[in-house]
Specification:
Layout lengths: L18 E7 L5 H4 L10 E7 L3 H10 L3 E7 L51 E10 L9 E7 L12 E5 L13 E4 L13 E7 L2 E3 L6 E3 L1 H7 L6 E8 L12 E7 L4 H11 L1 H6 L8 E8 L8 H10 L4 E7 L13 H7 L1 H8 L4 E7 L3 H15 L4 H10 L3 E5 L1
Parallel strand pairs: 12-13, 12-15, 13-14, 15-16
Antiparallel strand pairs: 1-2, 1-3, 4-5, 4-11, 5-8, 6-7, 6-11, 9-10
Helix pairs in contact: 7-9, 8-9
Length: 408
């Protein structure tokens, strides 16, 4: 999904010589850790110094040893800490460049998910390679939507679900200057579609509109570039950016997702993380047991993006995943007009309202900006039945970080 609402930032070059400090918990004794010079404890934190060029490899090695990375900080930001105990971790002989220096250990704090921001900026983008470009709209559908996967090997572009990346189209604009980046919501989990932590995927619709003066059909620069790109092509990527649409760590949460078109992108990432077998195996600390409800608006049935996989999840997890479609040009609303997402929200407003009263219910809205007013109207009508001002209630959810909107 194209996302113009997230800011990119200024450029900064990442040098391979930079060092990063990994705080790791939960390393278990194994054949691999036995080769280290120091025993590994089951509790507390250990600190490992990692050069930039080895960050991905070290992440994978820590995962194999059962560890969880609590934080990653550039070494230049790491100062002296009080109340410390030296902890030394030495990498196996086959990986001398990851040998750690004696580091300090602070009092353990609550586990938090690190959210990477602007690892690559427009002045120094990561150059990835297209692995695949697959159509998502079936025969008889409207428009062109592609699922595009990029190889991130050789760099440090990592992300979490709900973030966006920037794409800088090849070529120059009408003034002869390089194109500006466009932001797209990430459609894959942090592990990537291949579960190897080396890819990122996007869901991109080719933008087309009528020129207001010439009446000619105009196509979006970046969306056309991406929808027609060939596997093997090099692409300039920036980011990741965004904290508005992050998925809560609570596996018991209720997650309400309201999507139109390519607004499905972040929700695909959520659902894959929640329900895919490979993801559940890779994320032992996050085993979703709550309720996820997706209300998805599209023009025609062939435009239901990722339909086969969505319905497979619904079939396998009927108690944890609800899937509701609003197919505007095939279904009728209660008044006999087209069925848009706001009409589905109105139909289910009593249940949605009750779910929103729970302190661990998060509501996400992603897609065309025009969806917001209709959804607000439907929920305001339900709130008024309970003597509640919807606008004030929504503001309170926002303060509690339970109301998340990313529209365009």
């Amino acid at each position: 999904m194209y996302n113009p609402s997230v800011s990119g930032g200024n450029a900064r070059t990442l040098a391979d010589s930079r060092l990063f400090l990994y705080e790791v918990q939960g390393l278990r004794q194994s054949a691999e850790t036995d080769r280290m010079n120091s025993p590994i404890r089951q509790s507390g934190s250990v600190f490992i110094t990692v050069p930039y060029s080895r960050m991905n490899q070290e992440m994978q090695r820590i995962t194999r040893m059962g560890g969880k990375i609590v934080s990653i900080r550039p070494m230049e930001t790491v100062g002296a800490m009080a109340n410390v105990t030296p902890t030394v971790i030495e990498a196996p002989p086959s990986q001398p460049e990851t040998t750690a220096k004696p580091m300090t250990q602070a009092t353990p704090t609550a586990k938090t998910t690190e959210v990477p921001i602007n690892l690559y900026k427009p002045g120094a983008p990561f150059v990835g390679q297209v692995l695949s470009n697959e159509p998502l709209v079936q025969e008889g559908g409207l428009g062109i939507v592609q699922h595009i996967t990029f190889d991130l090997s050789g760099g440090d572009l990592h992300y979490v679900e709900g973030q966006s990346i920037g794409i800088i189209p090849a070529g120059t604009d009408a003034s002869g200057k390089p194109h500006k980046l466009r932001l797209y919501s990430i459609a894959s989990t942090r592990h990537g579609d291949n579960m190897d932590d080396k890819t990122v995927s996007l869901c991109v619709r080719q933008l087309e509109y009528e020129h207001p003066e010439t009446k000619e059909k105009v196509y979006g620069v970046c969306s056309t570039y991406l929808c027609n790109i060939e596997p093997g092509a090099a692409v300039k990527i920036t980011g990741p950016v965004g904290k508005e649409m992050l998925l809560p760590d609570d596996p018991e949460a209720t997650i309400i997702m309201l999507a139109t078109g390519t607004g499905i992108a972040p929700f695909r990432a959520y659902l894959w993380r929640m329900f895919k077998a490979e993801e559940k195996k890779a994320n032992p600390d996050y085993q979703f047991k709550g309720l996820a409800w997706l209300i998805f608006g599209v023009p025609y049935t062939p435009n239901i993006l990722y339909r086969e996989e969505l319905e497979a999840i619904q079939k396998e997890y009927p108690d944890n995943f609800r899937l509701t479609y609003a197919i505007s040009r095939e279904q009728k609303n209660a008044e006999g007009g087209r069925m848009y997402i706001q009409h589905r929200v109105a139909e289910h407003a009593p249940e949605l309202w009750q779910l929103m009263q729970k302190p661990n219910t998060h509501t996400y809205m992603c897609g065309l900006k025009g969806m917001e007013d209709g959804i607000d109207e439907a929920l305001a009508a339900e709130a008024s039945k309970h003597g509640v001002d919807w606008v004030e209630f929504r503001k309170q959810m926002k303060k509690e970080h339970r109301w998340h909107v990313e529209t365009y």
